[in-house]
Design brief:
Blueprint lengths: L3 E2 L3 E3 L4 E4 L10 E3 L3 H9 L6 H17 L4 H12 L6 H15 L4 H23 L7 E5 L14 H10 L3 E7 L6 H13 L3 E4 L4 H6 L5 E4 L3 E3 L4 E4 L2 H10 L4 E5 L4 E2 L16 H4 E2 L2 E2 L12 E4 L6 E4 L2 E4 H5 L4
Parallel strand pairs: 5-6, 5-8, 6-7, 8-11, 9-12, 11-16
Antiparallel strand pairs: 1-2, 2-3, 3-4, 9-10, 10-15, 13-14, 16-17
Helix pairs in contact: 1-2, 1-3, 2-3, 2-4, 2-5, 3-4, 4-5, 5-6
The chain binds 5-S-methyl-1-O-phosphono-5-thio-D-ribulose.
The site of 5-S-methyl-1-O-phosphono-5-thio-D-ribulose has 18 residues, from helix 2 and strand 10.
Length: 330
């Protein structure tokens, strides 16, 4: 396989490594992840995360196994295991189905994994270009979770659009939801924005409504883990509440996603499988626990935002209005 490098993934021609996102922003530790069994563990514990990136990472680890000389049956088993590592982000299934089809056709898995990586970079750039048509001059925007270079092989989805908007002088400030319970906004998005020199302010998720009410946010942009055929979409838990608040205060709300996140087999949001995670993640973080270890807790990792709350969906092929989605765009 050729050398590949993104913010959170590296292949030096011999070894595949991921940046352990559970340790950010304090430590930058790169872990070997060439073996699918190891990659599955990294995906499950969110050391590598974000819908497009887990698809790319899974494809690369399968390609590593093929390069190590594994037989077809072992590769198929590994592809099935990787495909099931997390249930909501459809990019993972999309990448594994692509790799399995190439395997069955006797094609080269390394070339296909490289193509998936390259395509993701290009899709991010395309979203970034189209996104520029959304902004007026000097906007403050709000985002949830992390949809940047740590969630993709490229500049990101929603955060990539925000980055290009800042570079074009259209975005002047970013409000970052901390994103309970695993703090992808506080730990990851704030880290990326600081590296890029983009002015930003961290807020707790419960503060967004005040900013929206006070006219301090002109636009909300978020990523997506799966877009259903009717335009409903799943994203990090908290996105739905944010969409309700944005609608209440008349602030435009845009999910941003590449076509690898669109699931044409999925009729609507009710059919999207939602990952349920360990309740312990709600009771504390790391060594710090703020609820009794026995307190019952609910921990869906994602929620579904209905298309009626979407102003427009930004795809790599352009901006699709709510009206077009509701009229059956897909
Ligand atoms: O559980 P995570 O951190 O993988 O969740 C990630 C998100 O919800 C992102 O917003 C989503 O993957 C789209 S970003 C490219």
């Amino acid at each position: 396989m050729r050398e590949l490098a993104s913010l959170a993934l590296r292949h030096d021609g011999r070894t595949l490594r991921i940046l352990d996102q559970t340790l950010l922003p304090d430590e930058e530790v790169w872990l070997e992840a060439g073996e699918p069994e190891v990659m599955i563990r990294h995906i499950r514990r969110l050391a590598v995360r974000g819908a497009p990136l887990i698809g790319v990472a899974a494809a690369l680890s399968l390609a590593c196994l093929a390069e190590a000389g594994a037989a077809g049956a072992a590769l198929k088993r590994a592809a099935a295991g990787l495909r099931a590592a997390r249930p909501t982000a459809v990019n993972l299934m999309w990448a594994m189905d692509r790799m399995t089809a190439v395997l069955e056709a006797g094609g080269a898995l390394a070339a296909e994994a490289e193509a998936i990586f390259d395509e993701d970079v290009a899709l991010c750039e395309a979203m970034g270009r189209h996104g520029l048509t959304l902004f007026g001059p000097g906007e403050a925007v709000l985002t949830h979770c992390n949809s940047g270079g740590l969630a993709t092989a490229g500049i990101g989805t929603a955060l990539g659009v925000i980055r290009r908007g800042f570079e074009a002088g259209l975005v002047r400030h970013v409000f970052v939801d901390e994103t309970r319970p695993l703090l992808q906004g506080a730990r990851l998005t704030a880290w990326e924005l600081a590296r890029q020199g983009i002015p930003h302010t961290l807020i707790t998720d419960s503060m967004a409504a005040i900013l929206l009410r006070d006219g301090r946010v002109q636009r909300v942009l978020v990523g997506a883990d799966r877009v259903a055929r009717n335009g409903d979409f799943a994203n990090k838990v908290g996105t739905y509440g944010l969409a309700v608040q944005a609608r209440h205060h008349g602030v435009p709300f845009h999910p941003v996603a590449p076509w690898s996140t669109v699931d044409l087999q999925c009729p609507d949001g009710a059919a999207i499988p939602i990952e349920q995670r360990d309740p312990a993640e709600v009771r504390g973080y790391g060594a710090c626990r703020w609820a009794a270890g026995t307190t019952p807790a609910y921990n869906p990792a994602f929620d579904v935002t209905p298309v009626e709350l979407v102003t427009s969906l930004l795809l790599d092929r352009g901006v699709v209005t709510r009206e077009a989605l509701e009229a059956g765009y897909f």
